[in-house]
Write a structure and sequence with these properties.
Number of strands of chain A: 4
Oligomer: heterotrimer
Distance between the termini of chain A: 35 Å
Strand order of the largest sheet of chain B: 6-7-8-3-9-10
Largest sheet of chain A: 2 strands, antiparallel
Strand order of the largest sheet of chain A: 1-4
Largest sheet of chain B: 6 strands, mixed
Helix content of chain B: 25-40%
Strand content of chain B: 25-35%
Distance between the termini of chain B: 29 Å
Radius of gyration of chain B: 18 Å
Radius of gyration of chain A: 20 Å
Number of helices of chain A: 13
CATH class of the largest domain in chain B: Alpha Beta
Strand content of chain A: under 5%
CATH architecture of the largest domain in chain B: 3-Layer(aba) Sandwich
Order of helices and strands of chain A: HHHHHEEEHHHHEHHHH
């Protein structure tokens, strides 16, 4: 068994070496799975760490895609440096507005309100003429970084695209880890575990949650931006709640209390879908039943299996609900 | 006369047609334990919730020192110097003792919501947390997960959290509820020590504890204050004897 | 807008709101009593419409389609409660959301296997097939009026059952104080099973009733689910009267929104929801402090 600190380095080395071992199809497939993993990790900042079960993150994901599509000049590539921040900011801002309203409610209400506002975003693009209405629209050229006409980075190359996504994935993991270990992250976890106590200690619970929700929305936007760049296409379905719910499944599979769990969940679910699609016409039926089975049999996700493999870990912000040894003596 | 830490004037609170609290005024002084007593349904819990901001008064005014906090949300009141413990112990059950108290200390730190740097890196916060833990007698138990503590220890932990926010006034809602005699003695001594340099308001049913602790007593009945003053005066007050103390008062 | 057109739109709004109430009351009943948030509610609305189409096609009778569709939905509800839903009592909302999402995926695929994914229409019963001639070029279908009348009857029944009967009392007591009713010796497992089945049957009934005036298509359940949620958010969780108010508000907003502000009509109900959230976060008839 290798030492713990070595595990991420080995995984990173494998991910970095991957394009040299598999076909372009799989490089793109893994890239897509990484993007969904980013979305799932972003969502988990709200759901697992913030205790806010949101079903509208696809709206933030898709919105950033639309921003890229609308800012792309016809058949020429858009500037990555310009469009990515705008897309992330747009998603973060919409998350801020939706969160500001939804966080006036709790529990099941919050779920319903986020679902409804997410669908509002869907209908906004579905029922109006913005960017092709219900048909969606193409992004004909992948964004690039260029200085004075000289291309520094061109996402049209599958290899470059893969490494950019990998870099962003790592950046997301680092960002979320730092955030969750910070005073803010602990305050967020405290508000999740006992809202009343957090408030009576002096934590502005609403503001803390709203901030986390907006950050989560902005990261979801970054993921959506790259998903759109990869497909070269964006349609209202990308904002729909079926995607939001699917990403929630990834979060549940990966486990709610860790940073990278949802990434594992994304890889597992996307891999599973690929296998199911290849083996049966009725893959959605099978997927639905598998989702039900996971919910019923593994309330804490496949993460339940983790301690058996890696041993237990984590501090207060990420600690799963477990009974400590002392409890036996009371 | 000592300094008034918290002053509530003519508070009204009604739920629909029910007047839970009506025209209640109370002054809590620094260096004193002020006990609020009264039969069930007298409005004590409503009063403490009005003071801490969990309920808003329909009328009246609440001053914390020179600051008007009548319309402030609970978190703003906490940052202004008001700390509270609940009737049902309210802690972060999955966090360790140290993490619980550190969070409380963090809430009063200027960096309470900083988004970078480990949560343990603030030396001032760590020191205040350690001091509060030692003060309530939980030293050595820092690494225990809070939900594994005994009922009495959880009470101590909650008080440590309140202390770590460095409040000018502490509100305690039935701190002795559900506690054994030995445990209660420890908590009573702890509460008595809290009034050094700050004000304490306590709602409690245990009359022995109340008379042992209180420097001042307010008696509520049907949402109103029927008597207020030093315990010995209040004990003799005819309205109090009639409405509340009953036989207990007559025997005394 | 002249008076006749206004009247027609008003009728449309009310009819739409009534159907919405039918479906949303099932949702709010299941949530209020079982504490389960069921995303698959809309899927049963869709399933009801397809069942109506299927039975009506084979038997030629809309009445049979209605009775059969509701009965099938009821039985499916009983089965689902026994097999899946009861395992969700006391679980967190996330588990409920995801299990019901799994149900949606399965139901959607089952529908595709059984009925395909074509868009269908269903003929209203012959005796309700005509229309009233209002002016020279404006008529109003009898069936739409029949929907209003039918939904009114069902709504009245729901109110009667919830407020007047022993079962309704149990149901209300259960929503507010589970412990107490358990002490009284009420068999919660049985009550729960039937409440869930009735909730599902109401969703299916909604789908059956609208089948003749709208088209039957695979995605119809999603839209209805979202609208039902908005109804519940507007009215207040667990409040049947609130659901009625919310449903009518949405019917009016949507219908007149399409007339007056056609370009933004689909967003209007969400603006309405945002306004209610700012005004009363717990819904119009929701309890203030939860």
């Amino acid at each position: 068994m290798m030492p713990r600190w070595l595990v991420p380095l080995v995984l990173l080395a494998i991910a970095a070496a991957l394009p040299f071992g598999v076909s372009t199809y799989y490089v793109q497939f893994i890239g897509k799975a990484f993007i969904m993993g980013m979305l799932a990790m972003a969502l988990n900042l709200a759901v697992g760490h913030g205790g806010m079960v949101s079903i509208c993150h696809a709206a933030f994901f898709g919105l950033a895609g639309y921003v890229l599509a609308l800012m792309s000049p016809g058949y020429d590539p858009a500037s990555l440096v310009l469009t990515l921040p705008v897309a992330a900011a747009a998603s973060g801002f919409v998350a801020l507005v939706i969160g500001a309203l939804a966080l006036r409610t709790r529990g099941a209400y919050f779920i319903m309100v986020t679902l409804a506002f997410g669908e509002m975003m869907f209908f906004l693009f579905h029922d109006t003429d913005i960017a092709g209405g219900s048909d969606g629209t193409y992004v004909n050229a992948k964004p690039e970084i260029a200085i004075a006409g000289h291309r520094l980075l061109d996402l049209a190359s599958p290899l470059a695209f893969y490494y950019v996504v990998l870099a962003l994935l790592i950046a997301t993991i680092v960002l979320l880890t730092v955030l969750l270990r910070s005073p803010f992250g602990h305050a967020l976890a405290a508000a999740r575990d006992n809202e009343r106590r957090a408030r009576s200690l002096g934590f502005p619970v609403y503001r803390i949650r709203l901030t986390a929700f907006a950050i989560s929305g902005a990261i979801a936007g970054v993921a959506g931006y790259f998903a759109t760049a990869q497909f070269g296409f964006v349609a209202p379905e990308m904002l729909g709640w079926h995607l939001s719910a699917t990403v929630l499944v990834m979060v549940l599979i990966g486990g709610l209390r860790s940073v990278t769990g949802p990434l594992v969940g994304a890889l597992v679910l996307i891999g599973l879908e690929e296998v199911l699609k290849a083996s049966t016409d009725y893959w959605k039926l099978a997927e639905g039943l598998i989702v039900i089975l996971i919910v019923l049999s593994m309330p804490n996700g496949v993460r339940q299996l983790w301690p058996l493999i890696f041993g237990a870990t984590g501090d207060a912000a990420t600690r799963p609900a477990r009974v400590p040894a002392e409890a036996n003596h009371v | 006369m000592s300094e008034v830490a918290l002053s509530a004037t003519a508070l009204d609170k009604h739920f629909g047609g029910l007047r839970a609290v009506s025209g209640v005024s109370v002054d809590v002084h620094v260096g004193e334990v002020h006990a609020v007593i009264g039969p069930n349904g007298a409005g004590k819990s409503t009063l403490i919730n009005l003071l801490s901001g969990e309920l808003f008064a329909n009328a009246g005014r609440i001053m914390l020192g020179d600051a008007d906090i009548t319309r402030l949300a609970p978190d703003r009141r906490a940052r202004a110097g008001l700390g509270r413990a609940y009737q049902k112990t309210t802690i972060f059950p999955k966090f360790t003792v140290h993490e619980n108290v550190r969070l409380a200390a963090q809430a009063r730190s200027p960096h309470r919501l900083r988004m970078f740097g480990g949560v343990g890196s603030d030396a001032a916060v760590r020191a205040r947390a350690a001091e509060a833990i030692a003060r309530v007698g939980l030293a050595g138990r820092e690494a225990v997960i809070a939900e594994a503590l005994s009922h009495g220890e959880q009470r101590q932990l909650e008080i440590a959290m309140v202390l770590a926010t460095d409040p000018r006034i502490v509100l305690l809602d039935e701190p002795l509820a559900g506690m054994g005699q030995a445990e209660a003695r420890g908590i009573i001594a702890l509460i008595a020590s809290l009034k050094q340099g700050r004000a304490v308001l306590i709602v409690e049913h245990d009359m022995d504890a109340v008379f042992a602790l209180a420097d001042r007593l307010t008696v509520m009945h049907d949402g109103r204050v029927i008597a207020s003053g030093p315990p010995q005066e209040v004990r003799m007050h005819p309205a109090v004897r009639a409405a509340y103390l009953g036989d207990h008062g007559a025997d005394a | 807008m002249d008076l006749v057109t206004f009247g027609v739109q008003l009728l449309n709004a009310v009819q739409y709101g009534m159907v919405l109430f039918l479906v949303a009351s099932g949702l709010t009943l299941v949530f209020g009593i079982l504490g389960v948030i069921n995303l698959a509610h809309g899927a049963f609305y869709m399933l009801g419409a397809y069942l109506a189409y299927w039975i009506a096609t084979y038997t030629g009778s809309f009445a049979l389609a209605m009775a059969g569709g509701v009965a099938i939905a009821f039985v499916v509800g009983l089965l689902l409660e026994t097999v899946f839903i009861r395992r969700l009592y006391g679980r967190d909302h996330l588990a409920q959301v995801l299990l019901s999402f799994g149900l949606i995926l399965s139901i959607d695929e089952a529908r595709e296997i059984l009925f395909g994914k074509d868009v269908h229409s269903v003929a209203p019963p012959a005796w309700l097939a005509g229309s009233f001639q209002l002016t020279d070029n404006l008529s109003y279908p009898v069936y739409r009026l029949a929907i209003c009348a039918f939904c009114l009857v069902v709504a009245a029944l729901i109110f009667l059952v919830v407020t007047r009967t022993r079962i309704g009392m149990i149901v209300r007591a259960g929503a507010e104080n589970r412990e107490m009713t358990r002490v009284l010796g009420i068999r919660f497992d049985v009550v729960n099973r039937y409440v869930f089945a009735v909730g599902i049957a109401l969703a299916a009934l909604g789908g059956i009733v609208v089948a003749p005036v709208s088209t039957v298509f695979p995605g119809m359940g999603d839209g209805m689910l979202i609208l039902s949620f908005v109804v519940v958010v507007l009215g207040g969780i667990g409040s049947v009267a609130g659901a009625a108010i919310g449903a009518l508000l949405i019917g009016l907003t949507d219908t007149f929104g399409k007339v007056f502000f056609p370009s933004v009509s689909s967003v209007l109900i969400y603006v309405l929801m945002a306004a209610v959230l700012l005004w009363r976060p717990n819904g119009i008839l929701g309890r203030r402090e939860v």
